[in-house]
Design brief:
Blueprint lengths: L10 E5 L3 E6 L5 E6 L30 H4 L3 H8 L4 H4 L3 H8 L3 H13 L7 H7 L8 H13 L4 H10 L8 H14 L4 H10 L1 H4 L3 H14 L4 H10 L8 H14 L4 H6 L8 H14 L22 H9 L3 H8 L3
Antiparallel strand pairs: 1-2, 2-3
């Protein structure tokens, strides 16, 4: 075997009293002594007498705002306002914008303006839903509120609109004006009816217009409501226009085609379309078995539609099914 193959350098490190002996096997044996007590320039572990307790690691794009709360006056004040930072931190873009704001210079004036329209107990929830409102210019917010005043909205109506829809003030006056005009023209609303709609369901005004158009088609063409009935539905239960089209159609088909409830009676109790078929089907089937599924108000033993989803089981059985609740529970086990 060729001994030259084994002549490779190797290092044996022995540390005794801060002294390292390096043994290198060559033809002649040499020992090198390295003293680790000797100071080196730019040593990262060099001893210092300075207070380093405030030194923290660099946080590149941290997704936990808790890391910044102690050093950020803005975040501390938001916490005092009951803002849920755990929800805000889910969006890094929003986090970056909020951290760049100075509370006294950038936020305080806007908060005082918002407080005129949003109750103090609701500000935390308001800012949690739309923290970017803090980045808006106060003058722009004033212009958007003044627009509503020019359209004869009362202060309490404006307050409700802003509270119920925190994103309203993010829309320019031009966009809001176009949205209100769209609803007025599409549903043939008067000025008072537009104000009623915007105040009652402010989220609808800023909702996706494509979704609104699709629901309009479903309610008119597939469900068969007339224009005046659609207008009545909109003002009574505007939430229908923000619901999933498939769910609305499924509920209507059961109520209208299975239970045989005509359009005019549905209009008297439109919120039945907001409830799942599951509970409605249970109670209707039970009444049908008892021979009490009678929903015509002009006939004796009339059962109103809200009895199919609003009352408790005990109240439903006592008032309309005319039986004990145990009988209803036994029936449910057979379904």
């Amino acid at each position: 075997m060729n001994l030259n193959l084994f002549r490779k350098s190797f290092v044996v490190v022995k540390r005794i009293c801060n002294v390292r002996y390096l043994y290198t096997s060559k033809s002649n044996l040499n020992f090198t002594v390295v003293n680790f007590n000797e100071k080196k320039e730019n040593d990262a572990l060099e001893y210092t007498s300075e207070d380093l307790s405030t030194v923290t690691p660099y946080f590149p794009q941290s997704f936990n705002l808790a890391a910044y709360v102690n050093s950020s006056e803005t975040l501390q004040n938001l916490v005092h306002l009951n803002v849920n930072l755990s929800k805000i931190e889910k969006n890094p873009i929003i986090v970056e914008k909020i951290l760049k704001l100075n509370f006294e210079q950038d936020i305080k004036k806007g908060l005082l303006f918002i407080k005129d329209f949003v109750n103090g107990d609701d500000i935390g929830n308001f800012l949690t839903k739309n923290p970017l409102i803090l980045c808006e210019d106060v003058e722009d917010l004033e212009v958007r509120v003044n627009y509503l005043k020019s359209k004869q909205f009362e202060h309490n109506e404006i307050s409700r609109i802003i509270t119920k829809n925190p994103f309203w003030l993010m829309f320019s006056t031009i966009r809001i004006d176009r949205r209100l005009g769209f609803y007025q023209e599409k549903f043939e609303l008067s000025g008072n009816e537009v104000r009623l709609l915007a105040t009652k369901q402010p989220r609808l005004i800023t909702y996706n217009l494509q979704h609104i158009q699709t629901n309009f088609f479903v309610i008119k063409e597939e469900m068969g409501f007339k224009d005046d009935e659609i207008k009545q539905l909109l003002l009574a239960k505007s939430r229908l226009w923000m619901m999933n089209q498939k769910k609305i159609l499924e509920r209507f088909n059961y109520i209208h085609n299975v239970i045989k409830i005509p359009h005019e009676i549905i209009l008297q109790c439109p919120h039945i379309l907001l409830h799942r078929n599951f509970k409605v089907k249970q109670r209707h089937t039970f009444l049908e078995k008892l021979g009490r599924a009678q929903y015509n108000p002009t006939i004796e033993n009339f059962v109103p539609l809200n009895a199919l989803f609003e009352l408790t089981d005990i109240e439903f059985c006592k008032k309309y099914a005319k039986c004990h609740v145990d009988d209803f529970n036994m029936f449910l086990k057979t379904l």
